[in-house]
Design goal:
heterodimer; A: alpha+beta; 60s Ribosomal Protein L30, Chain: A; Phosphoribosyl-aminoimidazole Synthetase, Chain A, domain 2; 2 domains; seven-stranded mixed sheet; five-stranded mixed sheet; 8 helices; globular; B: 363 residues; alpha/beta; Rossmann fold; 16 helices; 11 strands
C-alpha cells in the first residue's frame, strides 16, 4: 500500500505467572495440572504419576477399599437430565467405580447460602435419595453449613465415598499396555453442552440432556465378564482429551484414536459447531473410557452395550509404544494429528 | 449432521486432493485470510493432503490476534471500574494487555461477563439501569452487523447505560497492505467466506485486477477449503486473476444488503492499529457522530491511551504470511498458550495456537 511500504512489527509483552486463581485453574486443563503440582502435590504426599487416579486405594485388615471425595458447584442447580443432587451422588459413585471398586457408602456435606428456598433443598435431597438407591450406595453421614447471602452460589455439595475392591486387577494407568483397546461407554459432550445451553439461555433444535448417570454397573459388568480391565477413567472436566492425555502421560504409552469412531449426538455436535467447541474436550457425567486387553475388546464392547448406560459404547482406538505420553487422532478426512490438553477452559469463539 | 458431514467426506476430500495434485506444475503460495480457516486447515490436516509444492500461509483474519494492545488496556481500565459490567465474547478475555488480562480483572472482583451476542449486553443494560454496561465490539465485518444492531436497539430504547468499545477491522485494506508490502510472498487468496456473506465480494475485484492475484471466496469445511484451493490454483496455473465464489451456498456477490445498510448507518471507516502489524489507514470502523454517545472510549475517558508494543516475537510476520509459526525460535518453548508472547498464540484461531495445539509434536 502506498503510505505503508513495510509493516511496522509489534508484539505484545508476555503475561506474568497468575498471582490469583483464575477460573481456568479449575478447568481440567494444563493450568489445573500446574496448580496441583505447584500447590497440592508439594504440600501433601505426592502420588507416583502412575498411581494418580480418581480415588485412593487403601487396605485395612485384609479388606481393600477405594476412597474418594468431590465437590459439586453447578449452576443452574437443576438442568435437563439431572440436578446438583444426582450429580453429587453419581460423580462420587463413578470415581469409586473407576478405581474398580463396588461403591458402598457416601457422606454428604451441604454448604447452603442464606435465602435458598427450603423446597429447593427438599428437591435436591429427594433426588440424592433416588440416585443413591439406583447406584446401590447408602448415604451414611452428612453435614450442613449455612453461609451469608452473597457468600455462596445457592448450594454447594461435597460428597465422599467408600467402596470395596473385590478383584485382583490393578486398574490404573500403570497397567495400560501397548496393544490395548480403547473404548468409550457412549456418546460424548452431553453434560457440558446441556449445562451451557441452560446456563446461557442458548436454544438449539431439541433439548440437550445431561448424561448424568452412575457407572458402577458398567464396571461390574466388565469385571464380572472376566474382561482384563487395565484402566478406567470417567470423562468429566476436560472430557475425553484430558483423560487420554493424563493416562498416556502417567502410563508412559501413546494412544491413537479415530475421530470418526467417537460417538457424538447430532444436537451436541451442532451446538459445538456453532460455539466453536470440540466435543472431545467437553465434560460428561456418565461416560467412561476403558482400556482393555485387545483380545477382550469385542466381549467388553458387548458387555457394555448390554447395560442401559453403555448402549452407545464404541471402540475408538488403541494403545502404542512411542512416543510415551502422546495422544494422536486420525481426523475425519484421514490425516493424523496431536490431540493435546487444553490450556484452560474452552471459551466460545467470536465468529 | 446435515450441511457438515457432506463437506467432511474422506473419499471426496482425497479425490479433490488428487485433482489438485494433477493440475499443479510448479510451487505456489496461497494465503487463507480467516483464522477460522487456519484452524480448520490445521485441525483436519488439509495442508498435508496437498502436494509439497503448495504452501499455505496464514492470514491476519483472527480478530483476537489483531486487536491492538492499547485497546486491551482500554478494556481492562474500563472493566476495572466499579460501576461497569463489561461484556465480551469468551476468547477476548485471555488476551494479555500490557500487564494483565480481562480474566485477571474478573478474578480480582471486576464484573466481567462472557456473552454470546451484543444483544445480551443490551438486555443486561435494560435490566440493570444502575450499571454501566459495556460491550467489547471486536471482529471483522462478520461480527459488526450484530453490534450495529445493538447500538440501534439501545438508541431506540433510549438506554443511557449501554456503550460499545469498538475495535472493528476490515479485510480488504489488510489484503492490500499485504499485497503492497515488499516482502509479500502471497500469490493467491482464499477470502473469508463469512466476511463475504455480509459484504459480498465486489470490493475484491479491483484488488485482484490491480495486483493480478486470484481470489476465491472460500468456506470453512474440509471440502470447502479444498475446493477453494483447487479453483485458486487453477487460476494461477492458467494465468488468470479473477474473483471466484466457491462458497455459493452462503455468499452472493452483493452480500447481505440489510446488514450492509445497517453498517452504513452506524459505522464510518477509520484508521486502525492492528496488533502485530501496525497502523493501516482506513482499515476499520468507528461509530458515526450520530451514535457517539454509545462510544465507551469517550464515555470513560480512555480515548488517549497509547501503549507501545515490544518487538520481541514474530507475530507480525506470521500475520502477513512471511513466516510460519514453527519458524519462530520462541515457538513452543518460551511462547505457549499458557504464556503467550504474541497475539497469534493467544486466540484459538491464531496461527501459532493452532500449530501449538495440533502440530507441536510431529506425528
Amino acid at each position: 500500500m502506498p503510505d505503508c511500504p513495510e509493516f511496522a512489527l509489534h508484539c505484545p509483552l508476555p503475561i506474568a505467572d497468575h498471582e490469583v486463581v483464575q477460573m481456568a485453574h479449575g478447568g481440567g486443563g494444563r493450568l489445573m495440572q500446574q496448580l496441583l503440582e505447584r500447590v497440592f502435590f508439594r504440600a501433601f504426599d505426592d502420588p507416583a504419576p502412575g498411581e494418580r487416579h480418581d480415588g485412593a486405594r487403601l487396605e485395612v485388615g485384609g479388606v481393600r477399599l477405594a476412597f474418594t471425595t468431590d465437590s459439586y458447584v453447578v449452576r443452574p442447580l437443576f438442568f435437563p437430565g439431572g440436578d446438583i443432587g444426582s450429580l453429587a451422588v453419581n460423580g462420587t459413585v463413578n470415581d469409586l467405580a473407576m478405581c474398580g471398586a463396588r461403591p458402598r457408602w457416601l457422606s454428604a456435606g451441604f454448604i447452603i447460602e442464606e435465602g435458598l428456598p427450603i423446597a429447593t433443598l427438599e428437591r435436591v435431597a429427594a433426588s440424592m435419595r433416588l440416585a443413591a438407591a439406583a447406584a446401590g450406595v447408602a448415604l451414611v453421614t452428612g453435614d450442613t453449613k449455612v453461609v451469608d447471602k452473597g457468600k455462596g452460589d445457592g448450594l454447594f455439595i461435597n460428597t465422599a465415598g467408600l467402596g470395596v475392591i473385590e478383584h485382583e486387577q490393578v486398574i490404573a494407568p500403570c497397567s495400560v499396555r501397548p496393544g490395548d483397546a480403547v473404548l468409550v461407554s457412549g456418546d460424548l459432550g452431553r453434560h457440558g453442552m446441556a449445562i451451557m445451553s441452560v446456563r446461557e439461555g442458548l436454544e438449539f433444535e431439541g433439548t440437550i440432556t445431561s448424561d448424568c448417570a452412575p457407572m458402577q454397573g458398567l464396571v461390574q459388568a466388565l469385571l464380572g465378564g472376566g474382561v482384563a480391565v487395565h484402566c478406567l477413567r470417567d470423562l468429566t472436566r476436560g472430557g475425553l482429551a484430558a483423560a487420554l492425555n493424563e493416562i498416556a502421560g502417567a502410563g508412559g504409552v501413546s494412544i491413537h484414536i479415530r475421530e470418526a469412531a467417537v460417538p457424538v449426538e447430532e444436537t451436541v455436535r451442532g451446538a459445538c459447531e456453532i460455539l466453536g467447541m470440540d466435543p472431545l474436550y467437553v465434560a460428561n457425567e456418565g461416560r467412561l473410557v476403558a482400556f482393555v486387553a485387545a483380545e477382550d475388546a469385542p466381549r467388553a464392547l458387548a458387555l457394555l452395550r448390554e447395560q442401559p448406560e453403555g448402549a452407545g459404547a464404541a471402540l475408538i482406538g488403541s494403545v502404542g509404544n512411542e512416543p510415551p505420553g502422546l495422544v494422536t487422532l486420525e481426523s475425519v478426512i484421514g490425516v493424523k494429528r496431536v490431540l493435546d490438553l487444553l490450556s484452560g477452559e474452552q471459551l466460545p469463539r467470536i465468529c | 449432521m446435515k450441511f457438515v458431514d457432506e463437506y467432511r467426506d474422506a473419499a471426496r476430500a482425497e479425490e479433490c486432493a488428487r485433482a489438485i495434485a494433477r493440475g499443479v506444475t510448479r510451487p505456489w503460495t496461497l494465503m487463507e485470510i480467516c483464522g477460522g480457516q487456519t484452524h480448520a486447515i490445521v485441525r483436519f490436516g488439509i495442508d498435508e493432503l496437498l502436494p509439497p509444492a503448495i504452501t499455505l500461509v496464514h492470514g491476519p483474519g483472527c480478530p483476537v490476534c489483531v486487536t491492538p494492545l492499547e485497546l486491551i488496556d482500554k478494556a481492562i481500565a474500563i472493566a476495572s471500574r466499579p460501576e461497569v459490567t463489561f461484556c465480551s465474547f469468551g476468547d477476548m478475555l485471555r488476551v494479555p494487555g500490557s500487564r494483565r488480562d480481562l480474566l485477571t480483572v474478573k478474578a480480582k472482583g471486576g464484573d466481567v461477563r462472557i456473552v454470546y451476542s451484543p444483544l445480551d449486553a443490551v438486555k443486561l443494560a435494560r435490566a440493570r439501569p444502575e450499571r454501566q454496561v459495556v460491550f467489547f465490539a471486536v471482529g471483522f465485518e462478520t461480527t459488526a452487523p450484530a453490534n450495529a444492531h445493538a447500538v440501534v436497539q439501545a438508541h431506540a430504547e433510549g438506554l443511557r447505560n449501554f456503550s460499545l468499545l469498538v475495535s472493528h477491522v476490515l479485510v480488504p485494506p489488510a489484503m492490500e497492505a499485504i499485497l503492497g508490502s515488499p516482502s509479500n510472498r502471497v500469490q493467491g487468496f482464499l477470502t473469508a467466506g463469512h466476511v463475504c456473506m455480509v459484504m459480498g465480494y465486489a470490493d475484491y475485484e479491483p484488488l485482484a485486477a490491480r495486483y493480478h492475484v486470484p481470489m476465491v471466496v472460500t468456506g470453512f469445511e474440509p471440502l470447502d477449503l479444498l475446493q477453494g484451493i483447487h479453483l485458486c490454483l487453477n487460476q494461477l496455473e492458467t494465468g488468470r486473476a479473477d474473483v471466484e465464489n466457491a462458497y455459493g451456498r452462503t455468499v452472493r456477490r452483493e452480500g447481505n444488503p440489510t446488514a450492509r445498510a445497517l453498517l452504513q448507518r452506524v459505522f464510518r471507516v477509520v484508521d486502525r492499529k492492528w496488533r502485530g502489524v501496525g497502523l493501516i489507514p482506513q482499515s476499520g470502523w468507528g461509530l458515526r457522530e450520530e451514535f457517539a454517545a454509545y462510544d465507551a472510549e469517550q464515555r470513560f475517558g480512555v480515548a488517549d491511551y497509547a501503549t507501545d508494543e515490544s518487538t520481541e516475537c514474530l507475530s507480525g510476520l506470521v500475520l502477513q504470511g512471511v513466516k510460519k509459526p514453527p519458524e519462530c525460535p520462541a515457538f513452543g518453548t518460551r511462547c505457549t498458550p499458557d504464556h503467550p508472547l504474541g497475539a497469534t498464540m493467544v486466540s484459538n484461531e491464531g496461527a501459532c495456537a493452532a500449530y501449538y495445539r495440533y502440530r507441536r509434536r510431529s506425528v
